[in-house]
Design goal:
Layout: H1 11-17, E1 25-27, E2 36-41, H2 44-54, E3 58-70, E4 76-89, E5 96-110, H3 112-118, E6 135-136, E7 141-143, H4 144-154, H5 180-190
Parallel strand pairs: 5-6
Antiparallel strand pairs: 1-7, 2-3, 3-4, 4-5
């Protein structure tokens, strides 16, 4: 069963999150022991503010679904995905286009005092993937709207192009004197005849 995110907030959270266009805070203490499923979507005003924040022409859709589960020591594991449709400009044709964003989410939140202790030290030269340190639980709550915003922007292609867009490079007449083989030929012509050493002065 899908649960609606709770809107109850501590007084300090109003200050922390009042400027976020898409704010959906969930109080950690109110997350059931068995976990919960949270789904929500941005309204028209929120989408317009998000588009302005991200420098996009528009965001016609933005939604998120998360599963929240308790871990040891007060950790909260959040998995799910963020979906959106964003209006962009094709980098090839410069025509407007719509891009679909589907970004998976798998992240852990920890109380403030545990964030530093959960970080994994990295040794120079190591090639294996280093796990991300947990995000901090702020004011006893997790703002799923902020998480959704970050993941939505992360999934946007910075160089969008239409599927049928073809880039035609301008055709220029090649200068034969600038060809690499021409330079090699010039070097050979400047060299002394084969078998004869240059005279020393």
């Amino acid at each position: 069963m899908t649960e609606k995110p709770r809107r109850t907030r501590a007084p300090e959270q109003d200050t922390l999150w009042k400027d976020m266009p898409w704010s959906v805070p969930v109080i950690v203490a109110q997350i059931p022991e068995a976990g919960s499923h949270v789904a929500f979507a941005a309204n028209a005003d929120q989408r317009a503010a998000l588009a302005q924040l991200g420098g996009l022409r528009e965001i016609s859709e933005a939604s998120a679904e998360f599963d929240l589960a308790h871990g040891r020591g007060g950790l909260i594991h959040v998995t799910g995905q963020v979906r959106g449709k964003v209006g962009q400009t094709c980098v090839v044709t410069l025509e407007p286009m719509e891009s679909l964003v589907v970004e998976p989410v798998d992240i852990t939140f920890a109380p403030a005092g545990m964030v530093a202790t959960q970080a994994v030290p990295h040794t120079a030269g190591e090639e294996e993937d280093i796990p991300e340190p947990p995000e901090e639980i702020v004011g006893g709550a997790i703002n799923l709207g902020r998480l959704a915003t970050e993941m939505l922007f992360l999934g946007i292609d910075p160089y969008p192009r239409k599927a049928d867009a073809v880039f035609d490079a301008p055709q220029e007449e090649a200068d034969p004197d600038e060809h690499p083989f021409a330079a090699l030929k010039a070097l050979k012509e400047a060299a002394p005849p084969s078998g004869k050493k240059p005279k020393r002065h």
